[in-house]
Fold:
Amino acid sequence: MNDIIIKTQEQIDGIRKSGHLAAQALDYAEQFVEAGVSTGFIDDKIEEFILKNNAIPATKGYNGYPKSSCISINEVVCHGIPSQETVLKEGDILNIDVTTILNGFYGDTSRMFTVGEISPTAEKLINVTKHCLDLGIKQVVPGNHFGNIGFAIHRFAKANGFSVVYEFCGHGVGIDFHEEPQVDHAARKNSGPKMKPGMIFTIEPMINQGRPGTRIDKKDGWTARSVDNKLSAQFEHTILVTETGSEVLTDIHDDYSIT
Structure:
């Protein structure tokens, strides 16, 4: 494992600004999430917003990825490619994932959206997934092991009858799109390296209604679906380890206090 980067104050300030912009892009996208709208249209609006704010969408062109966001509907776990042919319908649940590069710094966040009335199962899945993220964030304190993030997430998801995707994980972020460490969402207690002030990484649990496995679409090489085509949900924030706790750098609604 390479060293986990300890960010300087200047870098932290830059990553925070980029993180806020990524979150603002999700807020902006929300108005377009309705039945009859294509995911390609939503992606176009997100790209327009990011460029207008003097930033770059990090996903576009990344390892050949063609779009400015990932939009993953229903059984799509992550990396859903927006298209004009994919049209939202009543009852859909979807994750929109945005990463911005602002002045060279990366901010990465995603959250769930719903179209009209959704099923009770979908609603429970979304609520449990959001709580999994919150439980993971509570584990972010100097000296704690990274594995305790995944331990807390997995325990809660399992207790609610859901499974945790293990094939994708959180990651260090800020200077590059993906840095050390790997942040697993299912892990042994007290495993992994210890957190230190100045570390910045994402926590982004993907929780499945059914089995935890995924399969990648052979046609596009990106879209990851649940193996049993059951629903999946995800929330993601970029988090800084502070001297005494954490700061959620993609929180623009004061959902989390700085500790």
Summary: DSSP finds four helices and 15 strands in the chain. The two ends are 28 Å apart (CA to CA). The longest strand covers residues 93-102. The mean pLDDT is 97.
